[in-house]
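Lab manual, section 2.4: Encoding a predicted structure.

Procedure: take the sequence of the chain (273 residues), apply the prediction step described in section 2.3, and record the output as structure tokens. A sample record is shown.
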Amino acid sequence: MKLSIREYMVPGATLAEKVRKLEQYGFDGIEITGTTDIKEKAASIRELVAGSPVKISAICSGVRGCLLDSRKSERDMALSDLKMFLEAAAEVGATGVIYAPLIAIKMQIGGPRSRVPDLSPLIGIKQTEEKMFVEYTGDLGRHAARFGVFFLIEPLNRYETFWLCRLDEGVEICRAAGTPGAKVMADFFHMSIEEDDIAASILKAGDLIQHVHLADSNRQQPGTGHTDFRGGFAVLKKIGFDKYGTLECGVRGKPDEALPQCAALIRRMWNDA
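Recorded output:
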């Protein structure tokens, strides 16, 4: 597994400064956030990492709009941004673009709510969302495949969304979409809440896992909570996972000390798994 980290976690005023820090810390990659000007910056980003051992691992969607909104204008905006991000991912050498379909929902009393109407008995909310997301995943997966990258679906935990919380739900969407350009991302923090058995869920998803996020049960860096990373790593090894595992979490301690220590710990756990 190659070790990456979210851009916002790394000290530095510029991407160049962050990349230099990560070279010192012992990381292999950095996961950047999608912005409306990322295509314009792609050439300079590619040039920046060309001579570095630290590469762009993925683009984490900063998409406008939402694919699962009742308003077509919002869906079209999200679709356009995501296609642009996928093209940028190819330009900078990233694996692909990560998207959580309901991440744009505002939290309300009682938890997150759907953006689409309930049209039962004709069709219920979940059925509507599933059909919509399969269609969009197929479109985006095919677009990704044309550029040699992946559209990466991220299941979230129940406190951030009411649907698409487990790996098997993401796998079902990818299989229904029927394109090799659509894959899932396994996030250890969300899995620690939603999966009955993290290792078993990884094994079941198999080679549809194309990217991983790393955070402990308390959403701090691995080693500060009670998540069994070695068990999950052992199964990732079993399915032949050799791609990026990206830190996405809070950091306890000073980053210049805590991040290199965390990188060393993750590598030990991976080697021991």
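Check your result against the sample. The chain has one domain: 2-272.
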